[in-house]
Specification:
Blueprint lengths: L3 H16 L24 E7 L4 H9 L4 H8 L1 E8 L6 H10 L3 H4 L5 E4 L4 E4 L4 H7 L1 H16 L7 H7 L4 E4 L8 E6 L2 H7 L4 E6 L2 E3 L25 H13 L6 E6 L1 H9 L5 H15 L4 H7 E7 L4 E2 L8 E3 H4 L18 E6 L2 E6 L6 H8 L5 E8 L2 E5 L7 E10 L5 E5 L7 E4 L4 E4 L5 H9 L6 E6 L4 E3 L10 E2 L5 H4 E7 L13 H9 L7
Parallel strand pairs: 1-9, 1-10, 5-8, 5-9, 12-22
Antiparallel strand pairs: 2-24, 3-4, 6-7, 10-24, 11-23, 13-14, 14-21, 15-16, 15-21, 16-17, 17-18, 19-20
Length: about 525
């Protein structure tokens, strides 16, 4: 058994892998580049991205009179409870959608783990300690630290940081997972990681004008004392992010756009379930501190636009005695399912890329069709949806007796987002309300399900299924992390897909309430060129 010190080190390495890259640099070098061409014509925007923040928690906390900062922003701004996240509902995919304005069929980051047909290897950005140890520290850190922003994220698709730079505007990312921009940054790998991970000491990347990634990328080193020790998760915590943002505000160094990523709530809800309010109350105190750094909350909204958004919801996972874990590898019996850390060979038949309550299931044998692979899983009662693509059509089945539902783009039915579709068979399967006379459709339990499923099914090369679990259950491979009695996400139902959005400091409204619509909305707020259509 690993001793406590090694377990902490492993946990830190996982956090590093999930969080991207780092770049210790001369003191305050980033601050020298924050002078904007805006000249005060537009308000600056701070976007606080709070991992797993849910509207039900905000509402209950306000009812208990425990969330004064959230309550102030809601009473003095706009509050939406139904912003549609990306799919799968995993941070790297969601953040890519937020910063590019596209689903994964365009930005090409399919999930926290996925299979690359070009490289013939399973990509894992850091799903859990045991998976990382079995998969190998070097490939995990290489993909997370180098390839995620460097090559996996579509290089032909601009991020908001790149778009703002073309407008002469400045931007910053505090601990954001996706950060590609136009400014050069050096990432320095600590000595204790260089040996086991076989990484170079320094890696050059592109980021926004101001970039932090905890203790591994701290432009304020030697200027401001930040919580960045091993016990502070090396700076990958809310206090570090909030204190860094406060420093920029108080020293008049705030860029035109600043993203602040707050991870702490997610970790608590995974352990204790989505009803837990303690983490939301702590987050409210941190938010209050940020508003006060302007002088007062009222002055904050007078001087800047403050936006708070969750990235995904969370579903309660049943306790261990109620059999909540769906072991996908066991369902395939004697088939050659790739084991973590193994190389893909000609004998490999199935590859599993599990993203908590969602998974990609790859079939590598030409003799086994995707429908054949789906038939192996269809009788498992805890599985919700199974979807796959055949040419331009997307197919979905739900349960052993249902007829497959299929759909494709560019049909004669229009959804609320002005996307057109052709659908056949049982639309009730996806809780779609069809108005034949008006040639329109609306979504119910599965928000924007046609576009989001299409986005996942076209996100990368390969022959694969998209599989989701029913509420209360979680998909696993042999060494996947589990959250029995806690919370999980990844799937496409409402509870995991709808997140809160709070906007203070402007009356301008987003055109649509989806994660992919925030980028054009932000560009509308920050530039003189209309983006929304």
């Amino acid at each position: 058994m690993l001793n406590k010190g090694i377990r902490i080190l492993v946990a830190i390495l996982i956090l590093v892998a999930i969080s991207g890259c780092h770049h210790p640099k001369p003191v305050e070098q980033d601050l020298m580049h924050l002078k904007s061409d805006n000249n005060g014509k537009k308000k600056k925007v701070i976007l606080l991205l709070i991992d797993s923040l849910m509207a039900q928690s905000i509402d209950e906390g306000i009812r208990q009179q425990e969330l004064p900062a959230f309550q102030f922003l809601i009473e003095h701004g706009q509050y939406y409870k139904d912003l549609v996240s990306s799919f799968p509902t995993m941070s790297v995919t969601i953040d890519s959608s937020l910063l590019t304005g596209k689903y994964p069929d365009v930005h090409h980051v399919p999930g926290l783990t996925w299979y690359s047909a070009d490289d013939k290897k399973l990509i894992n950005y850091g799903t859990g300690p045991m998976e990382v140890l079995r998969h190998g520290l070097h490939p995990v850190l290489t993909d997370a630290l180098i390839h995620l922003n460097g090559s996996h994220l579509n290089g032909k698709l601009p991020t908001i940081y790149e778009d703002l730079a073309r407008h002469g505007l400045k931007s910053g990312s505090i601990n954001g997972l996706i950060y590609r921009g136009t400014f050069d940054h050096l990432l320095t790998i600590p000595a204790y990681m260089q040996g086991p991970a076989s990484l170079a000491r320094e890696i050059q990347v592109k980021g926004p004008d101001f970039l932090t990634l905890g203790a591994l990328s701290n432009p304020l080193a030697g200027v401001k004392n930040l919580p960045e020790s091993l016990m502070d998760k090396m700076g990958f915590n809310n206090d570090y992010a909030i204190e860094t943002a406060k420093y920029l505000i108080e020293t008049n160094n705030l860029p035109d756009f600043l993203l602040v990523y707050l991870p702490d709530l997610d970790q608590q809800l995974h352990k204790k379930g989505p009803a837990e309010l303690k983490g939301v109350k702590v987050t409210d105190q941190q938010l209050q501190s940020l508003l006060q750094s302007f002088g007062s909350p009222e002055k904050a909204l007078n001087d800047a636009i403050i936006m708070v958004v969750g990235d995904s919801g969370m579903t309660p996972i049943l306790p261990a005695d109620q059999n909540p874990i769906i072991d996908l590898s066991a369902l395939f019996g004697d088939a050659r399912v790739l084991r973590p850390g193994e190389a893909v060979t000609k004998e490999t038949e199935i590859i599993l890329a599990v993203n908590e309550t969602m998974a990609y299931v790859y079939s590598l044998k030409a003799a086994r069709s995707l429908r054949d692979t789906a038939n192996v899983l269809i009788n498992e009662p805890r599985i919700d949806l199974i979807a796959w693509k055949e040419k331009e059509w997307m197919y979905v089945i739900q349960g052993p007796n249902a007829k497959p539902f299929r759909f494709k783009a560019n049909g004669n039915l229009t959804d609320p987002y002005q996307q057109s579709w052709e659908i056949e068979q049982e639309q009730e399967m996806l809780d779609i309300n069809l108005n034949a006379a008006a040639r329109s459709l609306n979504y119910g339990e599965y928000p924007d399900v046609l576009q989001r499923l299409s986005g996942a099914l076209n996100s990368h090369k390969g022959n694969y299924l998209v599989v989701t679990a029913k509420p209360g259950y979680e998909l696993v491979d042999r060494s996947s992390p589990t959250h029995k009695g806690g919370g999980g996400h990844g799937s496409i139902r409402k509870k995991e897909s709808l997140v809160p959005l709070i906007i203070g400091g402007t009356d301008q409204k987003p055109q649509h309430l989806r994660m992919i619509d925030l980028k054009p909305y932000l560009l509308d707020l920050l530039t003189d060129i209309p983006q929304s259509k």
